[in-house]
Specification:
The protein is an all-alpha fold. It is built from three helices and no strands. The chain has one domain (6-47). It is elongated and about 35 Å long. The model has no long low-confidence stretch (mean pLDDT 89).
């Protein structure tokens, strides 16, 4: 991972959380796992 100021990493994490919340709003866990596009996107955001 590139050497970045921790504040920028925190901003990246918070942005990923907002994206995940936006993608999963109103979905049940069953609906999330059934939608492979959103499921893979959420997993990708959580692992960046």
């Amino acid at each position: 991972m590139p050497n970045r100021d921790w504040r920028f990493r925190i901003e990246d994490i918070l942005a990923a959380i907002e994206d995940i919340n936006s993608l999963t709003a109103g979905l049940t866990s069953r609906a999330l796992s059934a939608n492979t596009t959103i499921f893979k996107s959420v997993n990708r955001l959580g692992n960046d």
